[in-house]
Design a protein that fits this description.
Arginase, Chain A, arginine metabolism, Ureohydrolase, 17% strand, Ureohydrolase_Mn_BS, arginase activity
């Protein structure tokens, strides 16, 4: 069973960092898929804090390599404050996105909490993309392609400073899983920065079990485990409701194993669920699948094992 029984849902309904509209509807789609009731059915206390509010999406082109930078900063400051408040109260925050730029606010808050409580941090980044772009490298200027770089200190001052410390995290706390789409300049930068990446070829060759054993290695009772779950991590055949589909992602069974192995550690302390775009979905099936996988993260076992 998880060591955290008190969960807070925090909606961040914006697509401010994305290249397609619609991730702003993600929180409601997850609620429609009964995320609160499903977690509650496992004996967890769930409080839905409702949605944060922030600036609308002006839908403009990039300025100095960044699209919508002031609005992205405003949203991430609000996410940071909300996530940090839940952690400080001893609760487990689930940030319902919104696009993945919001991971900047969320993970900087987790890192700050870890500094304040003397804990080590491990971040699992489940994603088809490395999200390690900079203004110099990005083809688009969309900030949802930059959060890991920003968290590691590479990006505009207003964003890298949100957590009160630059860099918010060291690259060696991150394990990226499921990666299969990286821009050429971004690839060089990832290698330079020493990010640990378990891409789809690694998963295909070594299997999800070995991949997760590697990604979770070294966790102890002093480690706070944060999972940043971009729904485009999943194969688009099973999860069409995302703006940036990349073929060849984990299957349903691989994704279940990934989540169950995270649950088995008992260390999960915070979660992002991002990039769900119900405008591109089919009968909310991607949201239902996401909730099913989140249920596994919190200990729903699909297996007939004696506990």
């Amino acid at each position: 069973m998880q060591h955290h029984h008190r969960i807070s849902l925090i909606g961040a309904p914006t697509d401010i960092g994305a290249g397609a509209r619609g991730a702003s509807m993600g929180p409601e789609a997850l609620r429609v898929a009964r995320i609160a009731a499903v977690l509650h059915s496992h004996g967890l206390e769930v409080i839905d804090r409702g949605n944060l509010s922030g600036p609308g999406n002006p839908w403009q082109g990039p300025l100095h390599g960044y699209r919508h930078l002031p609005e992205v900063v405003a949203w991430n400051q609000r996410v940071h404050e909300a996530v940090h408040a839940e952690l400080a109260a001893g609760r487990l925050p689930i940030m319902l996105g919104g696009d993945h730029c919001l991971g900047i606010g969320s993970i900087s808050a987790v890192a700050r909490h870890c500094r304040e409580t003397g804990k080590k941090l491990r971040v699992l980044w489940l994603d088809a993309h490395a999200d390690f772009n900079t203004a110099e490298l990005t083809p688009s200027g969309n900030i949802h392609g930059m959060p890991v770089a920003v968290l590691c200190g590479h990006g505009p001052q207003a964003l890298v400073e949100i957590g009160g410390q630059v860099p918010a995290i060291d690259s060696d706390v991150v394990r990226q899983i499921g990666i299969r789409s990286v821009d050429p300049g971004e690839k060089r930068f990832v290698h330079e920065q020493g990010l640990e990446v378990f891409d789809m070829r690694y998963i295909d060759e070594m299997g999800m079990r070995h991949t997760m054993e590697q990604a979770l290695m070294g966790l102890d009772e002093h480690t706070h485990l944060h999972v940043s779950f971009d729904v485009d991590f999943l194969d688009p055949e099973i999860a069409p409701g995302v703006g940036t589909t990349v073929p060849g992602g984990p299957t349903y069974r691989e994704a279940q194993l990934c989540m169950e192995m995270i649950a088995d550690t008992g260390r999960l302390g915070s979660l992002d669920v991002v990039e769900l775009n119900p405008a591109l979905d089919v009968r909310n099936k991607t949201a239902l699948l996401a909730v099913d996988l989140i249920e596994s993260l919190f200990g729903k076992s699909t297996l007939m094992r004696k506990s």
